[in-house]
Specification:
53% helix; three-stranded antiparallel beta sheet; 401 residues; mainly alpha
Length: 401
């Protein structure tokens, strides 16, 4: 009789690790290629200009781009948090000029791969469909469009995902905090994912200290940057942006900022767009048009609605509360995105919501609801891309200026 040799445990572990690595990498590369092929040409290059400015030791950029804070002599400040400018600087330091479209697609593809790996880490057998549904959602439109504001959101998503990976493994809390700080330095609401990250390191006070150190490593330079520009560590200059509709005045003159940049009275209309935004139906091809307010998450990101099926475990409740916390400043913002495929601010909450979504399929394969939601979103997004060469069309703003 021939002796049977038991498989080496390390070999089994290697095989179990390699397959998710290969699948996730292939999914991320495929998504990045799709975003490049289906994406839009970028017309704003504020972060690229800001990268050059930092290399030259200045904080201002040229004043001929939209949504800036003019400071005279053809110069202006770029208000959004500055971290995305760091993506450009290594290539700019050697005389190259990176494309915002390419960077956005690459960062977006990385985010898709991380989504798959997180779902696998949480034991989901439906990880492929979860990642595909996310990749085809509003997130995919943002990664393909890749302008300044969308690049920041896609980058913040990807950085938060990296932080959560470390959190679920309870490894490298300093790096986890640094990644979350960089995410907040790209897109401020992303920083409110902190409660979920702290929960993942619960019971380890030293880890919490290291997380705080990582956060401060980003927060302090950003605060100094704001102090130098506007005299306050928390003022990014949004209220000083020049109005497109009221020359010589700021955006506060526009009707959707009637109560300031942030105000609780804006919350109902933002939630209405997020939940009930629908197509404009037309009698001629392509028959469906996306309004500037965007589509509801039921159309543009339906896989995340299945997160409600997750078991009511403590981590699910913390993740859900964190997603709600992340969305509060978005809902209270006077603008709700404009010229968008779906309600794009929802991207900020996607990392936290991926946790209950993955746990809803822990140990279970994809069912008809998940497959249907992912396929529906992909079909809608592809249809709109093919019909308009991008998932939205430029129209007048929904309110008179």
């Amino acid at each position: 009789m021939t002796a049977t040799v038991a498989p080496d445990p390390q070999q089994r572990a290697g095989r179990s690790i390699s397959r998710p690595l290969i699948v996730g990498s292939a999914l991320g590369i495929g998504a990045a290629i799709a975003y490049l092929l289906l994406g839009d040409a970028v017309t704003e290059d504020g972060y690229r200009e800001l990268g050059l400015a930092f290399l030259e030791g200045r904080m201002w950029i040229r004043a001929d781009l939209p949504e800036l804070v003019p400071i005279g002599d053809g110069r202006a400040y770029f208000p959004p948090p500055p971290v995305p400018a760091l993506l450009y600087m290594p290539a700019q330091a050697v005389g190259l000029s990176p494309s915002t479209t390419i960077l956005s697609a690459l960062v977006g593809g990385t985010g898709v791969a991380l989504s798959y790996w997180l779902a696998r880490l949480l034991g989901s057998r439906a990880a492929l469909w979860i990642a595909a549904g996310m990749a085809a959602s509003t997130f995919g439109w943002a990664a393909g469009s890749g302008n300044d504001w969308l690049l920041a959101q896609v980058l913040a998503f990807t950085l938060v995902m990296g932080s959560l990976h470390l959190g679920f493994r309870r490894q490298l809390p300093l790096v986890a905090g640094l990644l979350l700080g960089l995410a907040a330095g790209s897109r401020l609401p992303a920083g409110l994912t902190l409660p979920l990250l702290l929960y993942l390191y619960r019971g380890d006070r030293r880890a919490w200290v290291w997380i705080a150190v990582g956060l401060l490593a980003v927060a302090l330079p950003v605060a100094a940057y704001n102090m130098a520009r506007f005299g306050s560590p928390i003022d990014f200059g949004y209220a000083h942006i020049a109005s497109l509709h009221h020359p010589g005045r700021t955006v506060l003159a526009e009707s959707w900022f009637s109560e300031g940049i942030i105000h609780p009275s804006y919350i109902p209309r933002s939630i209405a767009v997020m939940l009930f935004g629908g197509f404009q139906v037309e009698p001629s091809f392509p028959w469906l048009r996306v309004p500037v307010s965007g589509l509801s998450i039921a159309i543009a990101a339906p896989v995340f609605l299945l997160a409600i099926r997750a078991p009511r475990s403590p981590v699910v409740m913390v993740a859900a509360a964190t997603a709600l916390l992340v969305m509060l400043p978005n809902w209270a913002h006077g603008s709700w995105g404009f010229w968008q495929f779906g309600y794009r601010f929802f991207i900020d909450a996607m990392p936290a919501l991926l946790v209950p979504l993955a746990l809803a399929y822990r140990g279970w394969p994809a069912d008809r609801w998940l497959i249907g939601a992912a396929t529906f979103t992909l079909a809608v997004n592809l249809y709109l891309f093919l019909a308009y060469e991008i998932g939205f069309t430029t129209r007048d703003l929904p309110f008179p200026p």
